[in-house]
C-alpha cells in the first residue's frame, strides 16, 4: 500500500459524519444569508418559510408530486422495456445494431425535451402522454447502452464451458448471458431513474396539462411566491431521491455477489 | 461392428492428418498441421511445447470448440461434435471459469442442470464430487471467496460431473503457485486413476507432464505439429516419492531434450 | 468496403427507417388517434395511446423540409432556416460557456475529491443529490441575483444566468468522471512513480490525468449534451429571447395554424446537440494516443 493511499483513509464513521457536516454547513450558510444578514435576493426564501409552506400546502404538493412521479414511473418502465427488447435485438442481429447505434447516439446528446411541444400537438394538450414519452426516451438511452454492453460481456472461457457442456442456445442465454447482463441492466436503471424524473419534470415546462411539480414551480416562481416554489422543489427532490434510492438498492441487491 | 470399428471405438481419441488454419487480417496462419495421435481409453497423455505450437488448438479441436480444417478426428468412434453433444468428455481451462454468481455447489452441478438431471440426483452427485476433490466444507462459498487452487479444484469437479470417459485439461494449473500445483497434480493423478478416465492434458511444464502422463506428446511451432512422443512407464505409481527418483529425472531430461532438440532439427531441415 | 463506411451506411438506413415509419404510420394510423377509456360525450377524457395522424398533428416529412425554406412569418421575412440557425448558434454559444464553467468546476471538484477521501465522502452524496434538484427552480433565482449584480454596477447579461444553469448540469459528469478516472492508474504505475520519488503534482499530470483520458472523454461529451439541454431549458424558464428554446415554445404556440413550423427549431435543437457532442468527439481524436487500451464502446 502506497503512502498516498494510507493518507486518504480516515476512520469509517467519518463516512457518515462528513456528508451530514457538509449539509449542516450549507444549511447554516443559507440561514445566515437569508435570515441573519438579510442580503439574499427575493427569489431565495428562508428555509423556515419553505418548511412552513411545505406543511401548509402538503396536500396539493403531494397531489402534484403524485402526477409527476407517475409520469416518471410509467416513462421509466416503458423506456426500460423498449430498451431491453431493442438491446436484445441489437445484440442478436448486426444490422439492427448498425441502424440503432447512430440513432441512440443522437438521442443521447439531443435535448429531448425540445420535442415535448410537438408530442403535445400529436397527443393533444390535455394528455400526459407527451411527458411520459419524454421520460421514456430519457430512460431508454442508459438502459439500452448498458444492457447491450452487458449482453456482450460474457467471457470466452464461460462460452467455451457452456459449448463444451453441450448447452443449447436458450440454455446459454439463461445460464450465462442473462446473469452476466443483469448487473448492467440494474446500473442502467439506476442512471435512468434520475433522468426519467428530471425529464418528466422539465417536460412540464414546455406545455401540456396544468398540473405536476414542474408546472407549479414555474408558476409560483414567476408570480413571486418563492417559498411555495421552493416547497415544490423539495417535493421534486424527494421524488428524484426516492427513484434513485430504490434503484440503488436494486443494484446493490443484484451486484453484491459479483466482484469485478 | 467390424473389429476395425470396434478398435476405433475403444480409442478415446484418434486423430489422422488433423490440421487447423486460422484466417486473419494479415493472411492465413497454420496453427496445426498433419497431427497423428491416438489416446487409449484410460490413458493419460500430455501435450507439451512452446507457445504457438498448437497444443491448446489441438485440445479445442478435440473438444469441438473449433472445427478442424483438415483430417479426421474421432472421439470414442464418433465425430467430435457428436461426442460433445453426448457429453463424452469433461473439460477444465487455465482460468477456472467459474460463474461468479453461483456457489461452489452451483458451479459443480451446472452441467447436470443443463442436462436436466433431477434435483436429488444432482445433490447426491455434487456431494460425491466435492468429497473427491476435498471441498465438502466449502459448498456454499462463492468463487471470489476461494483461493486459486480451490477454484481449480471446483473446475475439475465440474469437469467430472457427468462421469466422462475423457477429461480435457488446458493448462489447468498454469496460474497456480508451485506448492499448490504439485499438490493438485497428485490429486489429479489419484482422481484419474480412481475414475479410469482418459486425460488429454495441455501444459508447458516438463516435470508436470512427466509426473502425470503415460505418454508425453512433444510439439513444435510454426507450423504447429507433433515432433516426438515419449513413453513414461511409471504406471499408477504417481506418488511424491516419484518426484525424487532417478527414473523420473531421466524422463524429465528426455522430454527436455526432445523439446530443445526440435528447433535444431528444424534448422537442419532447411 | 471499410468498416467506417459500413457503419455510416447502416446509420443512414436507420434514419431512413424512422422516416418511413413516420409516413407509414401517418398513412395507416387513425386520423384522430386511438383513445382508451374515453367517456362518451366528454371531450379530453381517456388516454390517447396512438397519436393523431391528421396533417395538423403529424405533418408530412416533405412539408417540414419545405417549411424551412419558406418565409418565417409571411411577407418578406427571411426563410425559417435563417432564424433557426441564428437561434441555434446563440444557444450553442451560451451552452459552450456553460460547458467551460462546468468542466472547470467539475475538474476541480474531481481532483479535490480524489486527493482527499474526506472531501469525497462529504461532497459526493451532495453532488449526486444536486442532480435531482429541478434546475428550473433556480432559473428565476439566478436571474434575479443576476439583475441585482447588474444593478450593482457589474454587468451581468441574462445569457450569463442561462450559462450558469447549463454549467450546473454540465459539471456533474465531469466531477464523477475525473474522480473515477484519476483512480484508474494501475498499482504498478503508481508504485513506479513513487520509486521515482515523484511528488503529488507530477504524478497527477504525468500519470493520473493521462490515464483518466478514457474516462474523461465520455464525461466531457455527456457534459456537452447536458449543457445544451440546460441552456435550452433555462432559456425557456428565464424567458430569454434569441435562443432556440424560446423559438421552440413560440412556434409550438402557432402549431394549429402552421403545423410544420415547430419542426424547424426542433431540427435546430437536434442539430445543436449533435454539433456540441461532435465537437467534443473531435477533441478525442487529438487525444487518441491516450486511448490505446480502450475498448471500442
In short:
The complex is a heterotrimer of chains A (260), B (270) and C (297). Chain A has helices at 3-7, 14-36, 47-56, 58-92, 94-109, 116-123, 129-151, 156-164, 169-203, 213-222, 226-255.
What does this structure look like?
- The complex is a heterotrimer of chains A (260), B (270) and C (297).
- Chain A is mostly helical and 260 residues long.
- Chain A has helices at 3-7, 14-36, 47-56, 58-92, 94-109, 116-123, 129-151, 156-164, 169-203, 213-222, 226-255.
- The radius of gyration of chain A is 23 Å and the shape is globular.
- The model of chain A is unreliable at 1-6 (pLDDT under 50).
- Chain B has ten helices and ten strands.
- Chain B has helices spanning 3-10, 55-62, 80-85, 104-108, 110-114, 119-133, 148-160, 178-195, 206-212, 246-269; strands spanning 11-24, 27-40, 44-48, 70-75, 78-79, 89-92, 166-170, 198-203, 215-220, 225-231.
- In chain B, strands 6-7-8-3-9-10 form a six-stranded mixed β-sheet, sandwiched between helices.
- In chain B, a hairpin with a 2-residue loop joins strand 4 and strand 5.
- The longest helix of chain B has 24 residues, at 246-269.
- Chain B is globular, with a radius of gyration of 19 Å.
- A two-stranded antiparallel sheet of chain C has the order 1-2.
- With 297 residues, chain C is mostly helical.
- Chain C is globular and about 75 Å long.
- Chains in contact: A-B, A-C.
- At the A-C interface, helix 2, helix 5, helix 6, helix 9 and helix 10 of A face helix 1, strand 2, helix 4, helix 5 and helix 7 of C.
Q: Name the poorly predicted regions of chain A.
A: 1-6
As an assembly, this protein is: heterotrimer
Largest interface (CB within 8 Å) is between: A-C, 73 and 79 residues
Number of strands of chain C: 2
| Unreliable parts of chain C | none
Annotated CATH homologous superfamily of the domain at 84-288 in chain C: MetI-like
**What is the number of helical segments of chain A per DSSP (H or I, 4+ residues)?**
11
Amino acid at each position: 500500500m502506497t503512502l498516498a493511499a494510507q493518507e486518504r483513509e480516515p476512520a469509517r464513521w467519518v463516512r457518515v459524519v462528513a456528508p451530514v457536516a457538509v449539509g449542516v454547513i450549507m444549511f447554516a450558510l443559507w440561514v445566515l444569508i437569508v435570515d441573519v444578514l438579510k442580503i439574499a435576493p427575493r427569489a431565495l426564501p428562508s428555509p423556515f418559510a419553505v418548511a412552513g409552506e411545505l406543511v401548509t400546502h402538503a396536500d396539493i404538493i403531494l397531489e402534484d408530486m403524485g402526477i409527476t412521479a407517475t409520469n416518471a414511473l410509467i416513462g421509466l418502465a416503458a423506456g426500460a422495456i423498449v430498451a431491453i427488447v431493442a438491446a436484445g435485438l441489437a445484440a442478436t442481429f448486426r444490422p439492427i445494431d448498425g441502424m440503432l447505434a447512430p440513432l441512440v447516439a443522437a438521442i443521447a446528446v439531443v435535448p429531448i425535451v425540445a420535442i415535448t411541444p410537438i408530442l403535445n400537438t400529436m397527443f393533444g394538450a390535455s394528455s400526459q402522454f407527451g411527458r411520459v414519452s419524454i421520460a421514456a426516451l430519457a430512460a431508454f438511452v442508459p438502459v439500452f447502452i448498458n444492457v447491450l454492453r452487458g449482453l456482450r460481456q460474457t467471457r470466452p472461457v464461460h462460452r467455451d464451458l457452456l459449448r463444451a457442456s453441450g448447452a443449447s442456445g436458450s440454455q446459454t442465454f439463461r445460464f450465462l448471458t442473462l446473469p452476466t447482463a443483469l448487473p448492467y441492466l440494474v446500473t442502467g436503471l439506476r442512471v435512468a431513474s434520475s433522468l426519467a424524473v428530471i425529464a418528466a419534470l422539465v417536460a412540464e415546462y414546455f406545455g401540456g396539462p396544468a398540473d405536476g411539480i414542474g408546472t407549479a414551480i414555474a408558476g409560483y416562481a414567476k408570480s413571486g411566491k418563492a417559498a411555495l416554489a421552493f416547497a415544490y422543489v423539495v417535493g421534486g427532490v424527494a421524488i428524484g431521491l426516492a427513484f434513485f434510492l430504490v434503484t440503488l438498492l436494486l443494484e446493490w441487491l443484484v451486484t453484491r455477489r459479483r466482484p469485478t | 461392428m467390424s473389429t476395425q470399428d470396434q478398435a476405433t471405438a475403444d480409442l478415446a481419441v484418434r486423430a489422422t492428418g488433423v490440421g487447423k488454419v486460422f484466417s486473419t487480417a494479415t493472411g492465413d496462419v497454420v496453427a496445426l498441421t498433419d497431427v497423428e495421435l491416438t489416446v487409449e481409453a484410460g490413458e493419460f497423455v500430455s501435450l507439451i511445447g512452446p507457445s504457438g505450437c498448437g497444443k491448446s488448438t489441438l485440445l479445442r479441436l478435440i473438444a469441438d470448440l473449433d472445427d478442424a480444417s483438415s483430417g479426421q478426428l474421432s472421439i470414442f468412434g464418433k465425430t467430435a461434435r457428436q461426442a460433445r453433444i453426448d457429453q463424452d468428455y469433461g473439460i477444465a481451462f487455465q482460468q477456472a471459469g467459474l460463474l461468479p454468481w453461483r456457489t461452489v455447489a452451483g458451479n459443480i452441478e451446472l452441467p447436470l442442470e443443463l442436462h436436466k438431471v433431477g434435483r436429488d440426483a444432482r445433490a447426491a452427485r455434487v456431494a460425491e464430487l466435492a468429497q473427491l476433490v476435498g471441498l465438502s466444507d466449502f459448498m456454499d462459498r462463492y468463487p471470489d471467496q476461494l483461493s486459486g487452487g480451490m477454484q481449480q479444484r471446483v473446475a475439475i469437479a465440474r469437469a467430472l460431473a457427468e462421469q466422462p470417459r475423457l477429461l480435457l485439461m488446458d493448462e489447468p494449473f498454469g496460474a497456480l503457485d508451485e506448492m499448490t500445483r504439485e499438490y493438485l497434480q497428485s490429486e489429479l493423478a489419484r482422481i484419474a486413476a480412481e475414475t479410469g478416465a482418459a486425460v488429454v492434458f495441455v501444459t508447458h511444464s516438463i516435470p508436470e507432464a512427466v509426473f502425470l502422463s503415460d505418454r508425453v506428446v512433444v510439439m513444435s511451432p510454426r507450423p504447429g505439429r507433433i515432433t516426438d512422443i515419449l513413453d513414461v512407464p511409471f504406471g499408477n505409481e504417481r506418488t511424491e516419492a516419484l518426484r525424487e527418483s532417478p527414473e523420473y529425472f531421466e524422463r524429465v531430461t528426455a522430454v527436455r531434450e526432445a523439446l530443445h532438440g526440435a528447433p535444431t532439427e528444424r534448422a537442419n531441415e532447411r | 468496403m471499410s468498416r467506417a463506411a459500413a457503419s455510416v451506411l447502416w446509420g443512414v438506413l436507420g434514419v431512413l427507417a424512422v422516416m418511413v415509419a413516420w409516413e407509414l404510420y401517418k398513412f395507416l394510423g387513425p386520423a384522430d388517434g386511438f383513445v382508451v377509456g374515453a367517456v362518451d360525450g366528454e371531450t379530453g377524457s381517456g388516454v390517447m395511446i396512438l397519436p393523431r395522424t391528421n396533417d395538423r398533428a403529424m405533418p408530412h416529412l416533405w412539408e417540414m423540409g419545405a417549411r424551412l425554406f419558406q418565409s418565417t412569418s409571411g411577407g418578406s421575412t427571411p426563410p425559417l432556416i435563417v432564424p433557426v440557425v441564428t437561434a441555434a448558434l446563440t444557444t450553442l454559444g451560451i451552452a459552450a460557456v456553460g460547458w467551460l464553467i462546468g468542466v472547470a468546476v467539475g475538474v476541480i471538484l474531481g481532483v479535490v475529491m480524489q486527493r482527499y477521501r474526506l472531501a469525497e465522502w462529504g461532497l459526493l452524496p451532495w453532488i449526486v443529490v444536486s442532480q435531482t434538484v429541478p434546475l428550473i427552480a433556480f432559473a428565476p433565482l439566478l436571474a434575479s441575483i443576476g439583475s441585482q449584480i447588474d444593478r450593482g454596477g457589474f454587468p451581468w447579461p441574462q445569457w450569463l444566468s442561462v450559462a450558469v444553469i447549463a454549467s450546473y448540469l454540465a459539471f456533474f459528469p465531469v466531477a464523477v468522471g475525473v474522480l473515477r478516472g484519476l483512480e484508474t492508474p494501475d498499482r504498478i504505475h503508481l508504485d513506479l512513480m513513487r520509486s521515482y520519488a515523484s511528488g503529488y503534482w507530477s504524478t497527477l499530470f504525468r500519470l493520473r490525468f493521462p490515464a483518466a483520458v478514457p474516462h474523461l472523454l465520455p464525461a466531457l461529451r455527456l457534459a456537452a449534451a447536458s449543457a445544451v439541454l440546460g441552456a435550452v431549458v433555462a432559456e425557456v424558464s428565464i424567458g430569454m429571447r434569441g435562443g432556440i428554446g424560446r423559438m421552440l415554445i413560440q412556434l409550438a404556440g402557432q402549431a394549429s395554424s402552421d403545423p410544420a413550423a415547430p419542426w424547424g427549431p426542433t431540427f435546430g435543437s437536434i442539430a445543436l446537440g449533435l454539433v456540441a457532442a461532435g465537437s467534443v468527439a473531435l477533441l478525442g481524436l487529438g487525444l487518441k494516443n491516450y486511448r490505446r487500451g480502450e475498448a471500442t464502446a
